[in-house]
Specification:
The complex is a heterodimer. Chain A is α+β, with helices and mostly antiparallel strands. Chain A has seven helices and eight strands. Among the domains of chain B are: 183 residues, 3-Layer(aba) Sandwich (Dimethylsulfoxide Reductase, domain 2), CATH 3.40.228.10; 123 residues, Rossmann fold (3-Layer(aba) Sandwich); 63 residues, no CATH class; 228 residues, Barwin-like endoglucanases. The longest helix of chain B is centred in the middle third of the chain and has 16 residues. Chain B starts with a helix and ends with a helix. In chain B, 63% of the residues are buried. The chains are: A alpha+beta, B alpha/beta.
Chain lengths: 193, 907
């Protein structure tokens, strides 16, 4: 490397003489950093999403890539088009990739029998069948046909539900619809809390 | 007020900063100096639980100095309406309104009616105590039999007109009184008044922001009423830059109210039918007045369309569209009542769908003891939360109150799909629906709630197929034929198909509906939630609209879809004057186009499109056609905004300052100490700290309040497992002032514990001037603040702050008073195991706490006698730490007072 070339490789020189006077772009780049690219560049596609934490409703871009094991979330970023959030995310929204890809996520159905001291694994269809039987049993045990004056109630007090506010509207719709048809009335949500 | 927006809604707060940069003045009124205060022009500290005294002071200031926006108030509110001669105010009854029944702790609201109005439906008066009655009235608000023909005095001088009633009610809310009750200096208070009033009027608007710092009180609905009254007096509703903005706390908590999983509501704020509704016609008549104004008059269309979506072909005109398939409610079936019923052995199975009440609900111990007394519990979540593992990590394990080998509850844990692994809509805090695309598939057994409920329903229908039992009919008739994607026995149901059916379909053509105006009560339309009708207008999923903000105006109608009808500012007819002209050029939003004879503007007009400004309906007219040209509040029975609420709010037609359930202060305004209609549960497992006039309050001398941090989320299930967030906020702490630290010997970063009659909780001490002692009526009151996100699971753990709270509820909403209580704080860590139980029993003994403490809700000095409102303490419940009831109790009358729980069962 000649002296001239050596001086030109110096960022301050490039900042003073080149177009990047603020030193935030090309002037500050090295050969190494020029080769780097954001991890979002490897994405096969981008899904439009919404942050699942507070109710501001910041729009998210979910970058999806794939390898031999299937598709994965590479990164989650704010969507700058949003008139609500203008692309910004708070610490929680910025951490939502960790929320969805972290090792804390459970992958298997677990069952703790009455008086048990440990979890047991259970396969999903079996768990659904066991639950179906239990729902009908609790419904029967708590059934109330009429009140003391003979007015029809046609309900069960044996089953209760409490939902979080990260449920989708479509999910809440089916929850209310199914439980209402079962006669369960104690169907509640974080919205009461 | 009641909001730490910069902390809890940081990305939304950018717009407050944007407004500030353009010259807006930002005031933050809050007990603690927070991240919001730091960015505001002015922070005004006040005592937690005293907000109505301050707001009442502002109302008094406006009315005493003629600072209201008179033209707006006269035209658009009920200020000129005359109130019944029988009405008596808190000024007359030492803090009670007329109609109070001390035995039940409820109001008969019939004396709160307008003159010439008709009495409210008889069902209301009897049911108030037991139901979340505010929501019981549905989207239309409380009904009036007639929206026209109400006596008025346009001069606003009649002593019984709402304007004069309001003036008299708040006349004693003076700057001096605000100072004594709230601890806000006269100078600060007047600065708030000046800032608020000078930023309002023709040329200016002011916005009011609140969050759960207002709702989570025993009179939370009245806090919001007080704020709304100010905003109406100043003409700040329905106008750009104005409003009362509720910042909701979770991604789709607005959606879970609109399409409710709440016991007292059906989708679109239709009330759940009551045991006394004989049938569909009776129900419809009870939720809307025969001659009331506005769109709620068409409630029958919305109901029948819902029933057609629920029961499809089985809902016919002959069977009242299967109305009797709906189960009936007849009291309080809210989450807190239900948890007490679990402890009492009346509930057998419990679903927790993305919720962690062991940490997130008030009185965590009650929650966990309830879960420990079930046949089975289902927990669906992303991760292993405390509510799934209470049988092995609850604090009650250490105290011996829950023993795993003796705990009978079967627990099923189902791993859930995350927000990127399923598609569907969230409704954010401004009523805007935003669709999420599915990014990736979930792994292993992870499934959406949609999958879980759909297949549970399918399996239940399969199991019951062929049943002749009448009670199985609603389930077997249920329209459960949603489109699915994928093969096998368990394909994924289509959220898109569910949203289409929520939007609604014309059953004669199969076409998607464009608007709720197309809904019919003759069985020809089906729609799951009438207010969401239009989200699929023109066959397009409008919740998926994503036109960039740079490619549209600032109303941004092309991003997402807001109910109703994609309207962004509710009641925006009020942005124009009675003649239909914008109040001012710079505050123009919607106006009357005289040439084209229709309403137009930057937003979707919230008014019948072609009803001209000067229109006067005939007397006795009903529905949208009865709306006069200057009735902007189209969902109200009389078309006007209610300064005075003749019905619908069960604890008073006007907000009134009462002390919180637990308070170190006597009520300086009335003999009535706390809300006379608050819902208390007198049970040994739900003790209260004493408050005046009871003795013993000095044992818990400090005001306790709790709130969020940016870096964690509610009960921590979505944040304490994340390394990034856990590192940012690694430990539970308690903020105290330097003065309190000196008084109690607390050192920064050392351990301390906070104590109530329910629990003791360890935390690291943070001594900070963010907490300021308040001088109140000649005494110093200290406040203590804690974040509440910790529990025994996760990367960072800590004691459960919600364990400190008891259960006392707002009677309108059945929401708990968790923003204020009383407490003690001591240096060092709390005792462990059995010693902890003895420690708490000692506190209760010293404070004289019995099962009666806090339950004598009426303390006003009127002719009516004292009475106890109580619930049964169940003798055969699980082993609980009973408060020491042997201590002498000088405040309680004998326990022979009528027992409300017995009456409930009889009702």
């Amino acid at each position: 490397m000649g002296v001239r070339e050596w001086i030109r490789s110096w960022p301050v020189y490039r900042q003073l003489t080149g177009a990047d006077r603020l030193g935030r772009g090309d002037a500050a780049a090295s050969a190494q950093s020029r080769e780097r690219q954001p991890r979002t560049a490897d994405a096969d596609r981008v899904a439009g999403s919404v942050c699942p934490y507070c109710a501001v409703g910041c729009a998210q871009h979910v970058y999806v890539g794939s390898d031999d094991t299937g598709e994965h979330v590479l990164q989650i970023e704010g969507n700058p088009d949003s008139p609500v959030s203008r692309g910004r995310l708070c610490p929680k929204g910025s951490a939502s990739k960790q929320l969805v890809t972290g090792e804390h996520r459970e992958e298997r159905v677990l069952y703790r029998p009455a008086y048990g001291t440990e979890w047991q694994e259970l396969d999903l269809p079996t768990a659904m069948d066991m639950l179906t039987d239990r729902v009908l049993d609790a419904r029967r045990k708590g059934w109330q046909e009429t009140d003391a004056d003979g007015n029809p109630l046609r309900r069960t007090q044996g089953i209760a539900s409490l939902g979080g506010a990260t449920l989708d509207n479509e999910e809440n719709y089916l929850i209310k619809k199914l439980f209402t048809a079962l006669g369960a009335v104690q169907i509640e949500n974080q919205a009461r809390i | 007020m009641g909001s730490n927006m910069a902390e809890a809604h940081p990305v939304g707060f950018q717009w407050v900063m944007e407004a500030k940069a353009r010259g807006a003045r930002v005031l933050h009124i809050d007990p603690r100096f927070t991240r919001t205060s730091a960015l505001a022009d002015k922070h005004v500290p006040l005592r937690a639980g005293s907000d109505i005294a301050l707001l009442g002071g502002v109302i008094n200031h406006i009315l005493s100095n003629d600072l209201d926006f008179r033209e707006y108030v006269q035209a658009y509110t009920n200020a000129s309406f005359l109130v019944s001669e029988e009405f008596a105010d808190t000024e007359d009854l030492d803090g009670l309104f007329s109609g109070y029944d001390p035995e039940t702790g409820t109001y008969d609201t019939s004396t709160w009616q307008y003159e010439n109005g008709f009495p409210a439906n008889a069902v209301e008066g009897h049911r108030h105590r037991e139901q979340s009655a505010g929501e019981q009235h549905g989207s239309g608000g409380p009904k009036l039999e007639s929206g026209t023909g109400i006596a008025t005095d346009e001069t606003l001088r009649h002593p019984r007109c709402v304007f004069q009633v309001l003036k008299r009610h708040f006349s004693r809310y003076t700057p001096e009184m605000v100072e004594r009750i709230c601890g806000v200096s006269r100078e600060d208070f007047l600065e708030v008044c000046r800032a608020w009033t000078s930023a309002s009027g023709r040329e200016h608007t002011a916005a009011l922001v609140y969050s759960v710092g207002w709702t989570q009180h025993s009179m939370g609905a009245q806090y919001i009423r007080a704020g709304a009254i100010i905003q109406l007096l100043l003409g700040n509703i329905g106008r750009p830059g104005g409003g009362v903005l509720a910042l909701r706390g979770h991604a789709s908590i607005q959606g879970s109210t609109d399409i409710p999983t709440l016991y007292n509501l059906l989708p679109g704020y239709l009330p759940m039918p009551d045991a006394r509704h004989a049938g569909k016609a009776d129900y419809v008549e009870s939720i809307r007045g025969t001659h009331q104004k506005g769109y709620w008059h068409h409630a029958d269309d919305y109901l029948v369309s819902l029933l057609k979506e629920y029961w499809g072909e089985a809902a016919t005109e002959e069977n009242d569209y299967a109305f009797d398939h709906l189960p009936r409610i007849d009291g309080d079936h809210g989450t807190y009542r239900t948890v007490m019923d679990m402890i009492d052995g009346k509930v057998f199975g419990y679903f927790l769908l993305g919720q962690n009440p062991a940490v997130g609900s008030a009185h965590g111990r009650l929650q966990r003891l309830g879960m420990a007394n079930l046949d089975w519990l289902v927990v669906r979540d992303l991760t292993m939360i405390e509510s799934a593992e209470f049988w092995r990590n609850a604090p009650e394990i250490e105290t011996g109150e829950i023993i795993p080998e003796q705990c009978r509850t079967e627990v099923f844990f189902f791993p859930a799909a995350s927000h990127v692994e399923k598609e569907g809509t969230f409704t954010q805090t401004q009523r805007m629906l935003q669709w999420r695309d599915r990014a990736v598939a979930p792994r292993g057994d992870q499934r959406s709630e949609l999958w879980f409920i759909y297949h549970l329903g399918r399996l239940l229908q399969r199991t019951l197929a062929g049943s002749a039992d009448d009670r199985d009919r609603p389930l077997l008739d249920l329209a459960w034929d949603y489109r699915t994607e994928g093969d096998g026995e368990f394909p994924e149901p289509s959220a898109d198909d569910v949203l289409r059916r929520i939007n609604g379909v014309d059953l004669t053509t199969g076409e998607l509906l464009d608007s709720y105006l197309q809904l019919r009560s003759d069985g020809t339309t089906a729609s799951g939630c009438w207010i969401y009708s239009g989200v699929y207008a023109g066959g397009v999923n409008r919740a998926r609209n994503r036109t960039a903000r740079t490619e549209q105006d600032e109303t941004a109608l092309e991003w997402g879809w807001a109910w109703p009808a994609n309207r962004r500012v509710l009641y925006n007819r009020a942005s124009a004057d009675p003649q239909g002209r914008p109040w001012s050029e710079r505050k123009k939003l919607v106006w009357w186009d005289a040439e084209r004879r229709e309403w137009t503007g930057h937003d979707v007009p919230d008014f019948p499109a072609t009803t001209p400004p000067g229109f006067e309906p005939e007397y006795g007219e009903a529905g949208p056609g009865a709306l006069a040209g200057d009735d902007p509040f189209i969902m109200q029975a009389d078309g006007k905004a209610w300064l005075f609420a003749p019905s619908g709010v069960v604890d008073g037609p006007l907000p009134t300052h009462y002390e919180p359930h637990e308070s170190p202060m006597p009520n300086l305004l009335y003999g009535q100490q706390a809300s006379p209609a608050r819902k208390v549960y007198s049970r040994e497992d739900n003790p209260s700290n004493p408050a005046p006039p009871e003795s013993g309050g000095e044992v818990f001398p400090f005001v306790f309040t709790a709130a969020r941090l940016t870096e964690h989320h509610t009960a921590g299930g979505m944040s304490r497992q994340l390394a990034y967030l856990s590192e940012l906020q690694p430990a539970l702490f308690v903020e105290v002032s330097p003065q309190l630290a000196a008084e109690r010997g607390l050192a920064d970063l050392d351990w301390a514990h906070v104590v109530t009659s329910r629990a003791a909780v360890d935390a690291r001490v943070m001594v900070t001037e963010r907490m300021r002692p308040l001088r109140l009526d000649g005494r110093v009151v200290h406040q203590v603040w804690m974040p509440y996100h910790w529990g025994p699971s996760g990367k960072v753990d800590g004691d459960i702050v919600n364990d400190l709270l008891g259960v006392v509820l707002d009677p309108n909403t059945l929401i708990q008073e968790s923003k204020v209580a009383t407490c003690d704080i001591r240096p060092g860590r709390r005792p462990r195991g059995r010693e902890l139980l003895e420690y708490l029993a000692g506190y209760r003994r010293r404070a004289g706490v019995t099962v009666e403490t806090g339950t004598h809700v009426m303390t006003a000095h009127t002719a009516a006698s004292d009475a106890t409102v109580s619930d049964t303490a169940t003798p055969d419940g699980p082993d609980t730490t009973a408060p020491d009831t042997t201590a002498p109790d000088t405040t309680a009358p004998d326990r022979a007072a009528p027992d409300r729980a017995d009456r409930e069962e009889d009702a």
